[in-house]
Target: NADH-quinone oxidoreductase subunit NuoE
Amino acid sequence: MSLETQPAGQRPVGPTGTGYDEVTLARLTADAHQIVARYPQARSALLPMLHLVQSEDGYVSRSGITFCAGILDLTPAEVSAVATFYTQYKRRPNGEYTVGVCTNTLCAIMGGDEIFDELSEHLGIGHDETTDDGAVTLERIECNAACDYAPVMMVNWEFFDQQTPASARGVVDDLRLGKDVAPTRGASSVCSFKQMSRVLAGFTDGRADEGVGAGEPTTRGTRLAREHGWTAGADGPGGTGAEDQTPDEDAPAQGSGVADATPSTGAEQSSAERTEETPADTSPATTTSTDEPTPAADEKTDPAAADTTSTTTEGER
Model:
């Protein structure tokens, strides 16, 4: 089979074209073929492929873009367009640890801005900048989806809950000293940016359940519901949910007209197949407006009468 006839996702990429040596290229190619095999179309594998090359280089390099384009039969421009759209893909060397501080609404109110400012001053860097030793890249994050633990900081997308400026500073200091740092939930220690990028490419490291899973603030509602016997239909403690009530057969039906004719979920929706059920179906000229009907096109409106109506209306006001 010639190179031209090989399907996308199975085509080899030469080391001279990517800048990778033969050993690295062979390893990346084997991983890439595993990723592509997950999808019905090779180009759908681009997102995890970008994480794969980022796990090799620490960012999406020119070599990584060329590699992805060659494997997936895309142009480098197409790959670059995706790589520059998402903030998790870095276009310059990233630090070993990405420290992201949530400064969205709730975390900001709870002190997220103060945490970011403290780290920025302490590390001497701003948003999306990296320390000189290459250890930490600092970011502002738009919601870490952990509002019940605000303010939240993430290190390589591992959660550090209910932080303070002092505790956050202690975390980054330990990271720069090479110490094992444990997140609040998840793995027992934070992995490197390259290691996390490989996990995001779909190659699990088996560490997700090493530490604590969902914490008390997240599960409190479920626990209270079980203790009190509440169900989804309950109106409150001791209440009876609407779904548990038996409808009164003698009660008049609520609503009329178009609302009653609305198809239920899963019913026929096509206008071509729908039977005439509403007033608008049987009498298209019917209007639900309380205003006077608009005169027909062939009827002439008396301007004087219109002025009189207008004057009367203003007088009544």
Remarks:
- Residues 101 and 140 are 5 Å apart (CA to CA).
- Confidence is low (pLDDT under 50) at residues 1-5, 255-259, 287-291, 303-317.
